[in-house]
């Protein structure tokens, strides 16, 4: 593990639709506890959260355009 590269990770993304709403669950499995901790300390989740917020805005706009 060097710099901002925590090494490899296995990402699993699951989409579940229920009652007209879709829930996204993403799980990330890192090579080691140290790699996971480095990612947590990097505040990467703030960038990921911002990306998901933007995706939600785009999907809402697309839904409005279809109605």
Can you characterise this structure?
- The protein is an alpha+beta fold.
- It has one domain.
- Helices cover about 50% and strands about 30% of the residues.
- The protein has a two-stranded antiparallel ribbon.
- Strand 1 (about 10-20) and strand 2 form a beta hairpin.
- The relative contact order is 0.15.
- The mean pLDDT is about 90.
Which structural traits does this protein have?
2 helices; 2 strands; 67 residues; elongated; alpha+beta; two-stranded antiparallel ribbon
Question: Summary?
Answer:
With 67 residues, the chain is α+β, with helices and mostly antiparallel strands.
What is the element layout, followed by pairings?
Blueprint: E1 9-18, E2 21-30, H1 33-41, H2 44-66
Antiparallel strand pairs: 1-2
């Amino acid at each position: 593990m060097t710099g901002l590269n925590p090494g490899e990770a296995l990402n699993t993304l699951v989409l579940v639709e229920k009652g007209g709403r879709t829930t996204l669950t993403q799980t990330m499995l890192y090579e080691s506890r140290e790699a996971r901790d480095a990612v947590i300390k990097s505040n990467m989740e703030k960038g990921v959260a911002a990306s998901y917020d933007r995706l939600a805005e785009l999907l809402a706009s697309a839904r409005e355009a279809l109605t």
